[in-house]
Amino acid sequence: MPQVLTAGRPWRVILLFAVPLLVGNVVQQLYQVADAVVVGRVLAVEALAAVGATGSFLFLLIGFAWGMTTGFAIPTAQAVGAGDARAVRRSVAAGTVLTAAVSLLLTVAAPLLAAPALRLLHTPEELVPQATTFAVVSFLGAGATMAFNLLSAVLRALGDSRTPLVYLVVSCALNIVLVVVAVPVLGMGVGGAALATVVAQGASVALCLRHVRRHVPALHVRREDWRLTRGELALHLRLGLPMGFQASIIAIGFLAVQVRLNELGPDAVAAWTTGMRVDNLAVALLASLGLAVSMFVAQNHGAGRPDRVRAGTQQALVLGVVGSLVIGLVVVLGGAPLVRLFVGSGEETVVGMAAFLLAVNGACYVVLGALFVLRGALQGLGHTVVPTVTGVLELGCRVGAAVVLGGAFGYPGVVWGNPLAWLAAFVLLVPATVHALRGTTAGTTAGAAISTSTSTSASIPTSIPTSTAPSEPPVAVHGEPTSADVTPEAVAAEVAVLPEQRDHDEVSPTRACA
């Protein structure tokens, strides 16, 4: 069930809510870490550089697809809130059809584009064969990746965030085992590393489908639910496409970085790839806090609690600054030893370059931590323009650093692109967030639909297509109340807490927005 964040000390509620998000983010990063460690230590630095050369290209297409599947689940959540069991099933059917279509397109077209795209990105010719192999295998398994993302999003739309996390952990563990078997034991090279991830994700899809079939009857799509209207498909596309494009904005910035790195040679590519593996794990900690803030602000804004919105944002800023200082210190001091986990002996040039990246980024994490909190607060308030503009601003800074600073100073100039992007976004977010928080007033309607994410947000439609047929009795899920019972009044009753459990200065909210 969705966690209600309108009661309790704000900093404690936010921190507890961020923990499972953190686990999920870290587990997702472990996919890439497992591949990098095995490939770098078993196949040498050139193979690691080849895998790294595919990163931005893969992220551009698969990241776009991931954003779309997340958007496809929004109408599902709306149907659950409306208590319309048939609309839930039809939304799942629409998302499945569109996901299958995009998966087919990626599976057929992307492998054919892999080698030309890598050369267009100025990938060093000695890396192209292995990089093409890794990209082709990954794209051939895009269907498994998209299916798991859609299933996870739909389960979360029903209020179940634990099941996707469980199967994500299973998938990661299986991926680690398979990559160890495929690369050093079977000698399958970088293609084996990509295949291990595809098989692990396919297994997680099978487990998720088994779970849905046995325990989630609300998602059992019937034959008539597949007869979708053009309007239903259009609604899902209107939500999915913008979220996909938002993910692509980030990828485009890293494509520019990748081009410059490719021109600087295999050592630069390998150093960046290795350093970013460590950096991504550190950033995942801060990103989890930002997502928790967005959900906290959304619920309290919907409940008409501007006092908690402001207090939560301020206290989260303290958590973000303290946490980023600690994480930054670990990354700066432990950069070189952490990098050596990924590469074999005799690669001191790569180690030094990667450690430099971690030192620069780690020293600037305090800006990034505050950035995540401020952007999360704006998204929770339903503000979409400024978060989107900051994403474009970050894109411009990364491209500028890659082209201008990279051309003038080489690898060090490219490295400074991330901190400059964070600083530019932070400068814009500070006055925007202060203005937004001052504008919050009590009495906000809890039924306002707000969609939040780690980078941008979009408004959820106030209605979804529903059938004119007689309504069906909703189906209970996991023994919880049926979707028809999930009304604002029922939520308020469900999350009510005893007076002595509240802070002495809090007024009990009458409604909660999940």
From TrEMBL:
<feature type="transmembrane region" description="Helical">
    <location>
        <begin position="43"/>
        <end position="66"/>
    </location>
</feature>
<feature type="transmembrane region" description="Helical">
    <location>
        <begin position="281"/>
        <end position="298"/>
    </location>
</feature>
<feature type="transmembrane region" description="Helical">
    <location>
        <begin position="233"/>
        <end position="261"/>
    </location>
</feature>
<feature type="transmembrane region" description="Helical">
    <location>
        <begin position="134"/>
        <end position="158"/>
    </location>
</feature>
<feature type="region of interest" description="Disordered">
    <location>
        <begin position="448"/>
        <end position="486"/>
    </location>
</feature>
<dbReference type="Pfam" id="PF01554">
    <property type="entry name" value="MatE"/>
</dbReference>
<feature type="compositionally biased region" description="Low complexity">
    <location>
        <begin position="448"/>
        <end position="470"/>
    </location>
</feature>
<dbReference type="InterPro" id="IPR002528">
    <property type="entry name" value="MATE_fam"/>
</dbReference>
<dbReference type="GO" id="GO:0042910">
    <property type="term" value="F:xenobiotic transmembrane transporter activity"/>
</dbReference>
<dbReference type="GO" id="GO:0015297">
    <property type="term" value="F:antiporter activity"/>
</dbReference>
<feature type="transmembrane region" description="Helical">
    <location>
        <begin position="420"/>
        <end position="437"/>
    </location>
</feature>
<protein>
    <submittedName>
        <fullName>Putative efflux protein, MATE family</fullName>
    </submittedName>
</protein>
<keyword id="KW-0813">Transport</keyword>
<feature type="transmembrane region" description="Helical">
    <location>
        <begin position="351"/>
        <end position="374"/>
    </location>
</feature>
<feature type="transmembrane region" description="Helical">
    <location>
        <begin position="395"/>
        <end position="414"/>
    </location>
</feature>
<feature type="transmembrane region" description="Helical">
    <location>
        <begin position="12"/>
        <end position="31"/>
    </location>
</feature>
<dbReference type="InterPro" id="IPR052031">
    <property type="entry name" value="Membrane_Transporter-Flippase"/>
</dbReference>
<keyword id="KW-1133">Transmembrane helix</keyword>
<dbReference type="GO" id="GO:0005886">
    <property type="term" value="C:plasma membrane"/>
</dbReference>
<keyword id="KW-0812">Transmembrane</keyword>
<feature type="transmembrane region" description="Helical">
    <location>
        <begin position="92"/>
        <end position="114"/>
    </location>
</feature>
<feature type="transmembrane region" description="Helical">
    <location>
        <begin position="165"/>
        <end position="186"/>
    </location>
</feature>
<keyword id="KW-0472">Membrane</keyword>
<feature type="transmembrane region" description="Helical">
    <location>
        <begin position="318"/>
        <end position="339"/>
    </location>
</feature>
<feature type="transmembrane region" description="Helical">
    <location>
        <begin position="192"/>
        <end position="212"/>
    </location>
</feature>
<dbReference type="InterPro" id="IPR048279">
    <property type="entry name" value="MdtK-like"/>
</dbReference>
<keyword id="KW-1003">Cell membrane</keyword>
